[in-house]
């Protein structure tokens, strides 16, 4: 979950729309009050902060985040019109993990958010990635075994790595280029059916083991694929 604190409703809603279209869960807040109330209910995975805010400004919010034991390790990106080198250094020195000056492109915003989320998961809980789960699908990296509804899956090496990658990035949309680079260790610009073909085979094997399990591997139109349980 991404929380975005921005008092300009138009900018906030445009960014939230772009993030959601990319398959990321995101909520917005106009100032510090509702933001910290939401954090108390459910801490976010990433925070986006404007600097110029009513009441407590973005740097003040960042200071409170870094002083809060439950939030101090959450990555923070500053999104602000204050784009001079001094402003960027001030934000980074105050504890921000990244800095994006307005006006920014939505594709760059999504890409940077995905990069921060991946980095946070690798650093904060690498041991949790040994065993992965989403709904009825389970994967054990150490044993190199995967199951759907308790039934073992007979996967090729690339199918196993594809499922592992999707589970590691559970809930987040991964582009075909990202999957090619991570699973096949190749960089490709252009058209290829490699990822699509493997996803289709993976879905079939999941459904063979547990009907409906393949539906957890979702197509994100214009982006790629993600794995997640259906929204409640």
What do you see in this structure?
The protein is of the alpha/beta class and 232 residues long. It folds into 2 domains: 2-124, 3-Layer(aba) Sandwich (Rossmann fold), CATH 3.40.50.2300; 127-227, Orthogonal Bundle (Arc Repressor Mutant, subunit A). Helices cover 42% and strands 19% of the residues. It contains 8 helices and 12 strands. It has helices at 9-21, 32-41, 58-67, 85-93, 106-124, 157-168, 176-184, 194-209; strands at residues 2-5, 26-29, 46-49, 76-80, 98-101, 131-134, 137-140, 145-148, 151-152, 174-175, 217-220, 224-227. The strands form 3 sheets. A 5-stranded parallel beta sheet has the order 2-1-3-4-5, with helices on both faces. Strands 6-7-8-9 form a 4-stranded antiparallel beta sheet, covered by helices on one side. Strand 7 and strand 8 form a beta hairpin. Helix 6 (157-168) crosses helix 7 (176-184) and helix 6 (157-168) crosses helix 8. The radius of gyration is 19 Å and the shape is elongated. The mean pLDDT is 87.
């Amino acid at each position: 979950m991404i929380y975005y604190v921005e008092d300009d409703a138009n900018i906030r809603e445009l960014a939230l729309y772009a993030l959601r279209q990319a398959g990321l869960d995101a909520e917005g807040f106009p100032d510090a009050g509702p933001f910290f109330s939401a954090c108390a209910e459910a801490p976010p995975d990433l925070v986006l902060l404007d600097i110029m805010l009513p009441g407590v400004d973005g740097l003040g919010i960042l200071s409170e985040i870094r002083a809060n034991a439950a939030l101090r390790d959450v990555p923070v990106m500053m999104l602000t019109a204050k784009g001079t080198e001094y402003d960027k250094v001030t934000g980074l020195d105050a504890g921000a993990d990244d800095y994006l000056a307005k006006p920014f492109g939505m594709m760059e915003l999504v890409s940077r958010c995905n990069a921060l989320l991946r980095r946070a998961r690798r650093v904060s809980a690498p041991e949790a990635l040994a065993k992965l789960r989403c709904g009825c699908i389970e994967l054990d990296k150490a044993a190199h075994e995967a199951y759907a509804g308790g039934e073992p899956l007979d996967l090729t090496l690339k199918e196993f790595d594809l499922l592992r990658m999707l589970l590691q990035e559970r809930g987040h949309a991964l582009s075909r280029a990202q999957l090619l680079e991570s699973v096949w260790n190749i960089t490709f610009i252009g058209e290829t059916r490699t990822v699509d073909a493997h996803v289709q085979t993976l879905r079939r094997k999941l459904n063979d083991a547990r009907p409906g399990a393949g539906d957890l591997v979702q197509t994100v139109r214009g982006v790629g694929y993600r794995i997640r349980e259906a929204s409640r």
